[in-house]
Sequence to fold (193 residues):
Amino acid sequence: MTALLLERPVVGKILHHWATPAVLLAALALFQPWLEASMARHMGLELPLLFIVGWFTANVAGDRLVRLLEPWNLAGVPALTFSMLAMSVWMVPSALDFAVLSPVVAMVKVISMLLAGIMAGASWRTAGIVIQAFFIMNWFWTTFVVGLLYKDAPQQLCSVYLADEQSHAGMAMMAWAILGLLLWAPGVFRKFR
Fold:
């Protein structure tokens, strides 16, 4: 279904237009107050969507970005390491609190998540299956376990959100972890057939 949609000339041109990531980011900015009003939406929608917009930006930039990163991005490891670190920071409850309370930290969050997506998107194909497996499995395990901790924590972890919201945020993180693994797995099976 998605492949058929991308093959249509108008849709393909829109998706690969240089301004599309900026339009998507502007749309996210419009919904920022709504997204951050709930911990589940903040962690389960805003953070993943920022990463996805970054990944999409890398795909729009194409090989130019890959060539630009090539001198220091051996097999994609440095860029993927940055992506893992950036995503991990925003799983910490106090980082999430500061992102809601401080406009400067909120901007750092947006920039770091966009860069995480850009770096991962630009490095993914060059990384190869073994490096991909290392990073996707570490990301899956980290995200799933942190989601489980949020879901089952007996006390309130974030000071700006209610304790009952963290359970929903944890379930959203666990769902993203499973979805990410399921999206990656078919590509692995195709390579080994």
About this structure: Residues 103-152 form the longest helix (50 residues).
